[in-house]
Every structure is written in structure tokens, then in C-alpha cells.
Design brief:
The complex is a heterodimer of chains A (472) and B (403). Chain A contains 12 helices and 23 strands. By secondary structure, chain A is α+β, with helices and mostly antiparallel strands. In chain A, strand 19 and strand 20 form a beta hairpin. In chain A, helix 1 runs parallel beside helix 5. Chain B is α/β, with parallel strands linked by helices and 403 residues long. The longest helix of chain B is centred in the C-terminal third of the chain and has 19 residues. Chain B is globular and about 65 Å long. The termini of chain B are far apart. Classes of the chains: A alpha+beta (472), B alpha/beta (403). Chains A and B meet through strand 18, helix 9 and strand 23 of A and strand 7, helix 4, helix 5 and strand 12 of B. Bound molecules: flavin-adenine dinucleotide (FAD) (2 copies). One flavin-adenine dinucleotide (FAD) binds next to helix 1, strand 3, strand 6, helix 5 and helix 6 of chain B.
């Protein structure tokens, strides 16, 4: 099969690129090793659209972060995703710290981060009343926001597919030759190959003969708290950053509940997504120093993700010595924020490389709106049920997800239990799927037309049921 | 016509409460349940061991559910199934949703019987990876019992609650190998009869004062690490051992499911999440009663039946205009008890107080303002009760446990 562009990796980076390129008259393939998109770092991060004052001017990630933040304002409407500019606060304890705040203020202003200001003492406590009073000042960036990173990616993917992108899940790339991407199942021929393989980007580059960088995986564990801690902060709160990370944060999720984390653990395998008690205790301790009311007993769920940190600590974006092979590597934080800007940049890179780009006349930037029972008023729900009775059937009671939404998710491409969970929130509530998993499996089996024994949690090998006893 | 008594939840608690409300003079009684079939959790409990107290014979869960469903129907109770209650407002108006649409029911009295949910992995944070093959025991039970799916072949169970014990036997009978039951406490959580019938009879090892400290596996569970715990419940270094398995079942506790109750403004016990009720099983909201697992987790359906009948009768009396004595006396208890129900009494009538102790006791006595009852055996995994006469409930009520 011949393509203009083959993108390797359907994380937020690869998917945003695919969607941006789908505005042009091009034949595009998005190739992913996992069963679904967003199963890499994209599903396991803090979900913050950073304001962009953290990294130094001159680094690629700094400019792309500020630009990415801006672009979310447009994308949220086109892709019908919730996005709240909740703002972020970087906190200081005493004069020395406050000097560093001044530094970040200037750095942010230089990069064009809008409306930055420093809040002190009573003004700060009035702003966030649950903050520890050991904190004396904070840099406030109102443009920062929170999103649901996987929902964003699935909407990007859906829209890319609407506009002609071909998506190939379960296609691990095992080799690359000039203008060829080889997977177990098929070989894709391409004018341009874009390497957006996240934590494996160095392996993909190596397959193409590019050995200019190395990826050092850096694990981050995150812990979700239940409703009892809701409202302790409405803004994202950072300590001053360390060399390796933005530090351990308190994050109000889109949902209002809090998330605390992440750790920054070096020297781990690229696929290490385990959580540990030590990390939880460390995270708890440092976030309680920010908000003393955070309680261990409100722990509710946890996960870990792995950041792809490249040699040089910056993003590596651009053509290589290999003809037609372009890297988008080292996309560590703020990669989620930067993704829309990375996609824009990629259009320019391809243009410079000589790819002919003709805008499509029929590009459709909008996805169909998703109806969600959990956010409906009674009147809206009445209307929805009248149109489709399945909106009246609640499958996930904790997050109030209807049968219609589950079926919709499958029709939009979900093939695994985790894929449905990430798309709809079913199974993400207080019982964590204890009640609804069974019904979801039944619906999956029906919609996908495969027996229960073949259903998986997250792709090949993760089957949920070993044997059908009654048909034995 | 008086407004109906509405029962939220059609498990055994709801069904028995409904029948009782009808038999005690309520004009109209409606049971609402989200599932297609009434019976609640019992529909998946296909083992025998239900109803010895109520029917004087040993029934399976579905048989028991069927009997109480039929009894309610016979008494004239109306069923509204495949209907979810979304919320209840301060006028006792209930909003429901189903394929037929969104509705509002104006209730004269309500009995909350929404059961409980299982505590999931995230809440107790078992460290390690997140492969397929980790299930709560109740979900596993549903998959195996209601549709005949074997979820795994080599199983480790965390928690010795009754569902975990029953699933150990069930999985074994289905050809799986249950390698161990791991329990953090010094004593098993489930009933003694289940330890014998489900573990001992099959030679399944029970590790008390142990826990799972790691789960390994990228796609499907591959291995767990188990360690012994010290008195402070911390893993003791050097005691770790591993078991290769493909499945981990969690039977680490049940939590009363009271999200709908919360929408009605009903006060919950912060520790247990159960509804706070008085001697009439009335919640903090006038005219709304509660019973069953939504109140406190029952290990025997027969205990639950006594409570549910009472709740149903009181709801019927309430719609028919009975004025209940105000319960103003707090029920207090010493550190030997896990909890005591109800939370408040009026002092005008004898009350059956239900309780659980924290540790096992032999030949203990329980006293309440001079009233004493002797118990040859008290076990934390066994709910008990004491009926205290009105004259001992007049002043401050305090239950004391003495060895
Ligand atoms: C704990 C944590 C917190 C973070 N918080 C934030 C935040 O708050 N804000 C922010 O902006 N950023 C944050 N980040 C960073 C952000 O998550 C990443 O930068 C972003 O998700 C990277 O997306 P990606 O598409 O480049 O990589 P990934 O999502 O990892 O996608 C790469 C894809 O390539 C696929 N792939 C790999 N090898 C192959 C192969 N051989 N063949 C085919 N496909 C392959 C993978 O399966 C994967 O799907 C955080 C990261 C972590 C880990
Ligand atoms: C696995 C297990 C094994 C047991 N084994 C035994 C045994 O061997 N012997 C014995 O005597 N006892 C046993 N018990 C104990 C006893 O039978 C149960 O505790 C009892 O079934 C609980 O009844 P319930 O009606 O309170 O709750 P449930 O049976 O859980 O019923 C609650 C009902 O409420 C419905 N509901 C909840 N919320 C809503 C809403 N918003 N809208 C509509 N409907 C709603 C649910 O669908 C459900 O049908 C066992 C319990 C369990 C959990």
C-alpha cells in the first residue's frame, strides 16, 4: 500500500499530526502497536494543559507549549471536549523561593504566557483557602487548563478518520527501510515516515538507521482521591520545579476530584507501569505540605505512565539523515499541551521537505456531539430518551453512563474494555467496574460480534475470561 | 388515595420490606429495581444456605429470591424493573429513568434498600501492575454463576470475606486451582461454616496476617508476591514468597451503596457509609426508612428479613398516619463493638439492637443500663442482636462488653 505519510504511534502526538494532515489532500496511515490509540503515555498523565512558563526560551518545547495551550481554545469546540482553564499556581515558601518565582514570571512573559502575576499572603489564601500557610506567595497563570487526555485523543482520531486517515491498531512496527514501514501484517510504503512512538521512538529511529538520540524512560505515578477531597483546590498547584520534573502536584481533574502526583523515577524499563506504596507515601507527604487537609483514606485509584525523556532534555522534531524519515521524539511533559502545536509544526516541516500540500475542500473540523447522561438536566435526559431509549438505561451507576453511550463508543472504534472505560468513564467510578463490567462485556460481545471469551481488557493476551464452561 | 410506599431496590431487603408494607395496610407499594429480575445479589449466589430461619429449609440464593419475589407479588406489590432511581428530592419525589422514559413518583414513604458494593483494588492500593485478571469476588461470581464463564485457572484470593470463600469453592469445582486465600487480619472475615465447607474441605490454604504486596503481569496476571504482616500491619521483610497465577480475586469488604440516599439528604455514617437510622429504621429524613445491606452488611439473609419486615411495616404505618415517638436518646457503645444499630432510640419501647464485636470472645456478657445478656461465643464475622426492654432504655443508653 502506498501512502503520502505513515505515522508511527497513535498517542496524542501522532494522532494530532494525523488530524492536522487530514486537512490536506493526502493519503495517510496511522500505525499503532496496541489494540487502541492512547494506550501509551497519553492515557497516564496529569491531564494539564500547561501555561508554559516552566521551560527556558530557546527550547523547542517552550514555544510549542505556549502555542499548544492557545490552540486548545479552538480545538475544544471543534472536537467537543470539555476543557477548563482552571489556572495554575507555582508556590513559594520564603524570600529565596520568591526570587525564583520572579524568574519564572519573567521567563513566562518572555515566552508570551498571558496574564501572569504573583499573589502573596492574604490575597493568595483568599484565592485558595486550603493552602498551607507556610506558603508565602505563588505565581498564577490563568491560561492553564485541564482536559481528559484520552478523550481528546479519541476525538482527534475520530475526526482524522472522518477526514480519510486510515488507522491500523495492533500493527507493531518491526522494521523500517527507506520509504517503507514494516509491520507483522503488512508493509506500508510512504513518501514520509513520522516517528511518534513515544517511549520507543529511539527503537524506531534505530530501525531506520538513525542513532542520534536515546530515550530514558521516566516513570510517574499518580493517585486519585475521592469526593471527600473535592474542592480543596480549584487550581493546579505546583511546587518549584526540580531538575528532573515539575514536582509533585495537586491537580483538580475535570471532574472536580483531586489527583496527586506524579513521581519522577529514572532507570525504569519502558513498560514499567507499576505503582508502589513508597511512592504513594512520598506523594502524600509532599502534597499534604501544600494542602494539609488531603487525607490518605480518600485514596480511590492509581496508575503510572512513562515519559520519554530524550538526550538533551528537549523535544526532537524534524527530518533526519534518512530520506523521508522524520522524528517527533522525546515528547515528555508538556507533550500533551504541545500536541496541537507539534502537529502545526509538522505541516511546515513536510512543506519544507517538498510534500505538496493542497487543502481539502471538504475537510470537516467537527465531530458529532457526544451526549452524556451524567451532564444532562432532567429535561435533556427526557429528550434524549425519547430519541433513543438506550439513554434511559444506566449501565455504569457510579458515573451514570447509559447503554447508548457504551454502544456509541464501540461504534466509534472502542474494541477493548479499557477503551470503553477511557471513552465513556464507565467503570471509573467508586466501584471501579464491579457492577457494570459484566453488562459492558455483554454489550461488547453483541456489538463487536465476538464471543465473551475473546474480549480483552487492553488487547491481545489480556483476555478477561478463560473458558466458557456451559458450552464446554 | 394515599401516596404509595416506594421501595428503592428489589433485592431480598426490598422485596421483604415491600410484602410487609402491603400486609401491614399500605394501599399501594411499588418496588423499583434497575435489573431485569428482582432478587438483587441473591441471583448470583447459587449455593445453598439461604432461608433456614425464614422458611425452615435450605434454599439457594435464586430460590430464595424467587420465593420472596412471589410473596411480594401475591401480596399485591407492583414491580418496576429495568428502572434506575436517579435521585430523590426533599418532597419525597423520586426521579427514575428507563427505556420508557424519565418519570417522577410522588411517594408517601420510601424504604431505601439499595444494597452494597464491593471495595475495589484502588481503594486499598495493592501495589504492582494492572493486567487483566483482577476481579472483585462478586463480579467473578456473577460471571461464573449467571453465565458460566470461567475467568481463570490459577487463582489467588485476597480477603476471607464470605464471597471470597464461596468463590474459592466455586472456582475449584469448576476446575480452577485456588492457590491461596490471603487475609490481612488475624481472624477470617467470613462465617466459620464457610471456612470449613469452602476451604478446609478442599485443602485450600488460608494465610492469616498476610497480604499481597505486588501483582505482576503485563497483559494478564502472572504472579503475586505475598508477605506476612507484623502487629502494625506492615509487611515483614524476608517473609515474601511468590505464587504464579493468572487471576486475583478481591474479597476485601463491602460498602453500603447509598448514593441515591445522599441525593435525598440522608445522613450516612462516615466510617461505614451506612445510613443512620433510629429505632423505627427511619433515616435522618422524615418518611424515608432503610434496611438491608444499605444499612449494614448482613451475612445472613434471615437477619436481614427481620429488619426488612420491620422497615416495611413502619413505612406502611407512616403513610397511614402513625405518629412515631421521637428518638432522642443516642445509643453509645464501648470499644469492644464495631458498631451498634440503631443509632437512636425513644425509650418508649423495647428495641432489638444489632451489633458486631471487634474481636472474638468466649462467655461474654453484654449489659445495657442494667439489662444483661450472656453470649457463649461472639465473633466479629457474626452479626448478633440483643433486645433491650423499654425500662432499660430510658436514660443514656450504653452497651458494654465484658469478658
Ligand atoms: C506521569 C506523567 C504526567 C504527565 N503530565 C503531563 C501534563 O500534565 N501535561 C502535559 O502536557 N504533558 C504531560 N505528560 C507528558 C505527556 O503525557 C506526553 O508528552 C504525551 O502523552 C506523549 O504523547 P506521545 O503520543 O508522544 O506518546 P505516547 O502516548 O506514548 O504514544 C506513543 C505511541 O507509539 C506506539 N508505539 C510504540 N512503539 C511502536 C511500534 N513499534 N509500532 C507501532 N506503534 C508503536 C505506542 O504504543 C504509543 O501508543 C505527562 C507524562 C507522564 C508520564
Ligand atoms: C455474595 C454473597 C453471598 C451471600 N451468601 C449468603 C448465604 O449463603 N446465606 C445467607 O443467608 N446470606 C448470604 N448473603 C447475605 C445476604 O443474602 C445479602 O446480604 C442480601 O442479599 C442483601 O440484600 P439487599 O436487598 O440488602 O441487597 P441486594 O441484594 O444487593 O439488593 C439491592 C438491589 O437494589 C437495586 N438498586 C440499587 N440501587 C438502585 C437504584 N438507584 N435504582 C434501582 N435499583 C437499585 C440493585 O439492583 C439490587 O437489586 C450473601 C451475600 C453476598 C453479597
Amino acid at each position: 500500500m502506498f501512502y503520502d505519510v505513515v505515522i508511527i504511534g497513535a498517542g496524542v502526538t501522532g494522532t494530532a499530526i494525523a488530524r492536522e494532515l487530514s486537512k490536506y489532500d493526502l493519503k495517510i496511515a496511522l500505525v499503532e502497536k496496541e489494540a487502541e490509540a492512547a494506550f501509551g503515555a497519553t492515557k497516564a498523565n496529569s491531564g494539564i494543559v500547561h501555561a508554559g512558563f516552566h521551560s527556558a526560551p530557546g527550547m523547542i518545547k517552550s514555544t510549542l507549549c505556549v502555542r499548544g495551550n492557545y490552540l486548545y481554545g479552538e480545538l475544544k469546540d471543534e472536537l467537543d471536549i470539555p476543557f477548563k482553564r482552571v489556572g495554575e499556581l507555582m508556590i513559594a515558601r520564603g524570600p529565596e523561593d520568591e526570587e525564583r518565582l520572579e524568574f519564572f514570571l519573567k521567563q513566562g512573559q518572555e515566552l508570551g504566557v498571558p496574564d501572569l502575576k504573583i499573589l502573596r499572603g492574604e490575597e493568595l489564601y483568599a484565592f485558595e483557602p486550603h493552602l498551607s500557610h507556610t506558603i508565602t506567595a505563588a505565581l498564577y497563570a490563568p491560561s492553564a487548563g485541564v482536559i481528559n487526555p484520552y478523550e481528546f485523543t479519541y476525538r482527534l482520531l475520530y475526526n482524522a478518520i472522518q477526514n480519510g486517515v486510515e488507522f491500523f491498531p495492533n500493527h507493531p512496527v518491526i522494521g523500517i527501510e527507506t520509504h517503507k514501514v514494516i509491520t507483522e501484517h503488512q508493509t506500508f510504503e510512504a513518501k514520509y515516515i513520522i516517528n511518534a512512538a513515544g517511549v520507543y521512538a529511539d527503537k524506531i529511529a534505530e530501525m531506520a538507521g538513525v542513532k542520534t538520540f536515546e530515550i530514558k524512560p521516566r516513570k510517574g505515578q499518580e493517585y486519585l482521591l475521592d469526593r471527600s477531597c473535592e474542592g480543596l483546590t480549584t487550581r493546579v498547584i505546583f511546587p518549584l520545579p526540580s531538575k528532573t520534573s515539575k514536582g509533585i502536584l495537586v491537580i483538580p481533574t475535570l471532574d472536580g476530584t483531586l489527583m496527586i502526583g506524579p513521581t519522577a523515577e529514572d532507570g525504569v524499563p519502558a513498560d514499567d507501569k507499576s505503582t508502589t506504596n513508597e511512592a504513594f507515601e512520598a506523594i502524600l507527604k509532599s502534597t499534604q505540605a501544600i494542602i494539609p487537609e488531603i487525607k490518605a483514606c480518600s485514596l480511590f485509584s492509581q496508575f503510572a505512565g512513562v515519559r520519554p525523556v530524550a538526550t538533551g532534555d528537549d523535544f526532537i522534531i524534524g527530518p533526519t539523515g534518512e530520506e523521508g524519515f522524520i522524528n517527533v521524539a522525546g515528547i515528555q511533559s508538556p507533550g500533551l499541551t504541545a500536541a496541537p502545536a507539534v502537529a502545526e509544526l509538522m505541516v511546515n516541516i513536510l512543506k519544507k521537505q517538498g510534500l505538496k500540500l493542497t487543502q481539502k475542500g471538504d475537510f470537516n473540523p467537527r465531530v458529532p456531539r457526544h451526549k452524556k447522561v451524567r451532564t444532562m438536566s432532567i429535561e435533556e435526559l427526557k429528550k434524549a430518551v425519547a430519541e433513543n431509549p438506550q439513554y434511559g438505561k444506566i449501565v455504569c451507576r457510579c458515573e451514570r453512563v447509559s447503554e447508548a453511550e457504551i454502544r456509541q463508543a464501540i461504534r466509534e472504534g472502542a474494541t477493548t474494555l479499557d477503551g470503553i472505560k477511557l471513552r465513556t468513564r464507565a467503570g471509573q467510578g467508586r466501584c471501579q467496574g464491579g457492577f457494570c463490567t459484566y453488562r459492558i462485556l455483554e454489550i461488547m460481545s453483541e456489538e463487536l460480534g465476538i464471543p465473551m471469551t475473546e474480549l480483552t481488557k487492553k488487547g491481545i493476551g489480556s483476555n478477561l475470561i478463560k473458558k466458557d464452561i456451559k458450552n464446554d | 388515595m394515599t401516596k404509595p410506599v416506594v421501595i428503592v431496590g428489589g433485592g431480598p431487603a426490598g422485596l421483604i420490606a415491600a410484602e410487609s408494607a402491603k400486609l401491614n395496610g399500605a394501599e399501594r407499594v411499588i418496588v423499583i429495581d434497575r435489573e431485569r429480575h428482582t432478587g438483587g445479589i441473591l441471583n448470583q449466589c447459587i449455593h445453598a444456605g439461604f432461608g433456614l430461619g425464614l422458611f425452615k429449609e435450605e434454599l439457594t440464593g435464586p430460590e430464595f429470591a424467587d420465593r420472596v419475589s412471589k410473596a411480594a407479588l401475591k401480596a399485591g406489590v407492583e414491580f418496576l424493573t429495568e428502572t434506575t432511581v436517579l435521585n430523590i428530592n426533599d418532597q419525597r419525589q423520586i426521579t427514575t429513568t428507563s427505556e420508557k422514559g424519565v418519570d417522577t413518583i410522588d411517594a408517601g414513604a420510601i424504604v431505601m434498600c439499595t444494597g452494597c458494593r464491593e471495595r475495589p483494588r484502588g481503594v486499598i492500593h495493592i501495589p504492582g501492575e494492572r493486567p487483566a485478571g483482577i476481579y472483585t469476588a462478586g463480579l467473578a461470581q456473577k460471571l461464573v454463576n449467571t453465565s458460566g464463564y470461567l475467568i481463570g485457572k490459577k487463582v489467588v484470593i485476597l480477603g476471607s470475606g464470605d464471597i471470597g470463600l464461596i468463590m474459592a469453592r466455586r472456582m475449584t469445582l469448576q476446575g480452577a486451582k485456588v492457590l491461596a486465600i490471603v487475609e490481612v487480619m488475624k481472624n477470617p472475615g467470613g462465617l466459620q461454616r464457610n471456612i470449613i465447607q469452602c476451604l478446609d474441605d478442599f485443602g485450600i490454604p488460608l494465610y492469616l496476617s498476610h497480604t499481597i504486596t505486588n501483582i505482576k503481569g503485563k497483559k494478564r496476571v502472572e504472579q503475586v508476591t505475598i508477605a506476612k504482616l507484623d502487629d502494625k500491619m506492615q509487611p515483614i521483610a524476608g517473609t515474601e514468597f511468590t505464587l504464579d497465577c493468572d487471576t486475583v480475586l478481591l474479597s476485601v469488604g463491602l460498602i453500603p451503596e447509598n448514593e441515591v440516599a445522599k441525593t435525598a439528604g440522608i445522613k450516612l455514617n462516615e466510617r461505614s457509609n451506612g445510613m443512620i437510622v433510629d429505632e423505627n429504621l427511619m433515616t435522618s429524613v422524615d418518611g424515608i426508612f432503610g434496611c438491608g445491606n444499605a444499612l449494614h452488611v448482613h451475612d445472613l439473609v434471615d437477619n436481614l428479613a427481620v429488619e426488612a419486615k420491620e422497615a416495611g411495616k413502619n413505612a406502611a404505618d407512616y403513610v397511614n398516619g402513625t405518629q412515631f415517638e421521637k428518638s432522642t436518646i443516642d445509643v453509645k457503645f464501648d470499644g469492644g463493638f464495631g458498631y451498634v444499630l440503631p443509632y437512636k432510640v425513644s425509650g418508649t419501647k423495647a428495641v432489638r439492637l444489632q451489633f458486631r464485636v471487634r474481636a472474638p470472645h468466649k462467655n461474654a456478657t453484654i449489659t445495657c443500663n442494667g439489662f444483661t445478656k450472656r453470649y457463649p461465643h461472639l465473633q466479629p464475622n457474626h452479626m448478633e442482636s440483643i433486645t433491650v426492654p423499654a425500662e432499660n432504655l430510658t436514660s443514656e443508653v450504653c452497651l458494654c462488653l465484658n469478658d
